[in-house]
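so ive been stuck on this for like two days lol. basically i have the seq below and the ligand is LCLJCK34, smiles is in there too. i just want the complex predicted, nothing fancy, no docking runs or whatever. if the output looks off dont worry ill sanity check it later, just need somthing to start from for the group meeting slides
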Amino acid sequence: MHECKLYVVSGENYHPDRGLLEVMEAAIRGGADIVQLRDKASPKRELLRKARAMRELTRRLGTLFIVNDHPDIALAAEADGVHLGQDDLPVASARQMLGPDRLIGVSTHALPQAIAAERAGADYIGAGPVYPTGTKPDRPAATLSYISEAARAVRIPFFAIGGIHPGNAEDVLAAGASRLCAVSAVVGSPDPEEACRRLRGYIDRRQASRPPSPSAAARARLTVNGRAVETPAATLLELAAEYRLADRRVVAERNGEVVPRASWPDVPVREGDRIEFVHFVGGG
Ligand SMILES: Cc1ncc(COP(=O)(O)OP(=O)(O)O)c(N)n1
Ligand SMILES: Cc1ncsc1CCOP(=O)(O)O
Ligand SMILES: [Mg+2]
């Protein structure tokens, strides 16, 4: 997930003369590394048929595949995950259905929603709409200032979405996004592969020109309470602070060993560590 940079969401009304799979395959060949089936019109059985076809395509091409709105379809089609909006199922319910390994993405329109999604255990968020868009005409633009806020405050991957096309992608990246998501600019393009290649080019050039931040360079990949995460934290205390647990009544285990709280500042967290924070339940 962390490697994914260009997310393309389907929208068959944008290409009435071409098939879903043809267009999504072109997008993937152009550089989309995560794709979503978003279809508000089909009955569920038809949706499942499309989801299974997209699963087959994405398996063949090695791309992540997400189903919009429906955890049951995501499960039945063996998708990599589901995308949920603010009015869709909450993350906890979807997590119960999908288990710990499938991805859950959440739409967010402002920073408090992003922080709530992160705390609820989302794997990534969509941030937007950055610009007004005909794909979601009733949703006001969150603007580039939300992208800058998210870049400063959100730790899980976020995809800027909404009205993004090759002509404004550099502005969105300059505001702090490192991942982009598009519907109409790709699937409504006469050449979806080329549209993706252009978006991907901006993302990759921007990434190459950003000096690696010391914290990014030092990020360790850990498992925290069963979930794979990346963190700049160097010690158990810093990790607890990142999860806002430093002042809470929790017990910490590192690789199966309980670590006394007094040692948290001195215990390093390293690549591959398994950390458990266990909450006390009840009063006292
Ligand atoms: C990656 C991504 N981000 C946002 C959305 C929008 O989801 P939602 O707000 O639930 O709206 P609908 O797409 O369901 O109309 C998305 N689908 N994907
Ligand atoms: C589904 C969704 N959620 C927020 S904006 C949006 C639509 C993005 O579509 P487009 O890339 O065509 O503006
Ligand atoms: Mg939705």
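DSSP finds eleven helices and 13 strands in the chain. The chain has two domains: 6-209, 215-279.
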